[in-house]
Write a structure and sequence with these properties.
Length: 252
Amino acid sequence: TNGTLCDQGHKVSIKKIDQPSPITSLAVHPVSQSDVAKLTTALNRLTAEDPTLRWNPEPATREMILSGMGTAHLDIAVKKAQSKFGVNLTTSVPKVPFRETITKTSKAEYTHKKQTGGAGQYARVFLRLESLPDDEQFEFDSEVFGGSISGPYITAVQKGCRQALESGALAGYPMTGVKAVVYDGKEHPVDSKEIAFQIAGRECFKKAALAADPVLLEPVYEITVSVPAENMGDIMGDLNSRRARVLGMDQD
C-alpha cells in the first residue's frame, strides 16, 4: 500500500514501490442477489489491500473484470472475497468485446400495426442504412419531406434505431459505423403513437441491417514482444497462427 509506520517524533519516508501491471484477467460473477450488493465493496477492499490486483467494469460485455499476476493470484483473491468479505463469486474467461458493422448500403420498409379493440397502433417506416468511417459509431438523419412523418415520430424512429444498434443484427453484439436515414413513412391520424414508430424504427433497422451484409469486428491490440534470437522462429509461428500482423522487428 506504500504506507510507512513510524514514530511521530522520527518520521521516515520510504520511496514508493512501483507495482507491476496485471498479466491475466478473469470475469467475476456474483452468485446471488445479496452478493451483487456487496460485490463492488469487496473488490474495492481487495484492491486496497493488494495493489497488484485491479478491477474494472467492461460495459461492452457487462462483466466485472478482475486482473492480477496470475491464475493462482486471482484464485486466492476470489477465495478471500468469500472468506473475509462474505461475497460468493464464480469466475469465467472474459468475453471478447466483438462489434458488428455493415458492408453495403441497404433499404428496408416496416409496418407496425396493432389493433386491440380501442385505439390501436400504426406506423410505417422506410429506412436506408449506409456505412460510416471506422472512427464513427452511429449517425441518424431524416430525408422525410411533405409531412409524411411528424417531427416527434421521427425522434421515436431514431430511438428505435438506437435500440436495434445495441443488440446487433448478426450475433447480438453492438453495431458501429452505421448511418440510418429515414426517408419516408406513413402515420395514422388516430392510431399513430410514438411507441408505434419506435417499434417500427427498431424492426426496420434490423431488417435493413440483415440486408446490408453484416460482419463481425474483432478487437485489435498493439503489443511489443521481446524474445531471444534463437526463439524468433517459434514466436513468429505462434503469432501467425493467431492472425497477428507483424509491423516491424528490431535486433539488439
